[in-house]
Amino acid sequence: MKIEVYSPTIRRKEMDAVLTAMVEDCIGPGERSRLLIQTAREQLHFDFALALRSPATALHFALKALDVQEGDGVLVSALSPRYYAQVLADLRLTPLYCDVSFSFPCMSRETIEKALSVKPSGVQARCIVLHHTLGFVPDAASIAALGIPVIEDMSLSYSPPFVPEKEPSEQGQPEQKAPPELIHGVFAILGLEERDMLTSGGGALLFAMNRRDGSVLRHFANIPPEYCLPDINAALATVQFREAARNMERRREIAHAYIQSSLRTKHKRFVSPDGAPEYNNYAFPLVLETGMKDVLAYARKKEIIVESAFEQSLAGAGISDSVLCPAGYSLSLRTVLFPLYPRLHSRDAQRVSKLIMTLP
Questions:
Q1: 0.70 surpassed by pTM
Q2: Domain end point (choices 242, 272, 305)
Q3: pLDDT digits over 98-139, tens only?
Q4: Residue 209's domain spans which residues?
Q5: Which residues have C-beta within 8 Å of that of residue 286, sequence separation ≥ 6?
Q6: 198 DSSP assignment
């Protein structure tokens, strides 16, 4: 039986939530969207959020909230999703493409500074859209220190909520520690599309962590309902938040087996920088030392679907400049993804592990 590279984790709880919304005629934006925002706030600790119909809509409103003007420059990674280019084109903004490193697929302060050094004269860099590529978390603190407003896209890097330790206070009562700072950008996008870490079948949350930035987003609180997330989708996403810890543990188990198999090959894994959060195992990518076509063909013979990791990225679509972004371009040609999702059966995960171990 063929093993697909991706499958959304939809179980009985998600199905029941959607069915209940349909029975109650809660299809358009309404109470369930508000419940989704409340559930997400309990886990992400943001000040204010909008539940929107797509990540593209969220990026559009984030750029508008930053008052980025026509012609201004926006820094984006060569491995960002290709819809970024469409949003920037619609707003008549100038994309400034940033490279990544060969060992880590996200922008860094160094690659951003390099892009700034070669940007067109007369173009002002007004914003950085920091994509957490394949779920890896970049050093957003050092990037934010550049002084350019940052929008973080954590659609693939979401992890279950931090559970704070408790310490006795001076009165002897347990006292919760504040959660660690998860987002360093002005705004953050949490996509809820089919292949995002959490899914509602489509949609996104756009949020701000502090009151000052949240007050800016509140100006968009009364946007027309056609821009807002329908309740039928919000019901599904709410359950996804609640099941995230369970799904994360299953991803960790599968990834552990894959890592052991990959150690016996000549192909390379990405390595998170020191101090970065634990990888959430959104995917299992390998950077190939041999041709991608050979690996894809070998996997098909084993009835396992393996796909290019960056086919839908700016570099993979030929949108970003391969000369200015050589690492991103190279990785777009050599990086593949193997099946890794919570619903993957143990016997199928073993088949994938064996495939990784025997790759050409």
A1: yes
A2: 242
A3: 999 999 999 999 999 999 999 999 999 999 999 999 999 999
A4: 12-242
A5: 262, 265, 267, 268, 269, 335, 336, 338, 356, 359
A6: S
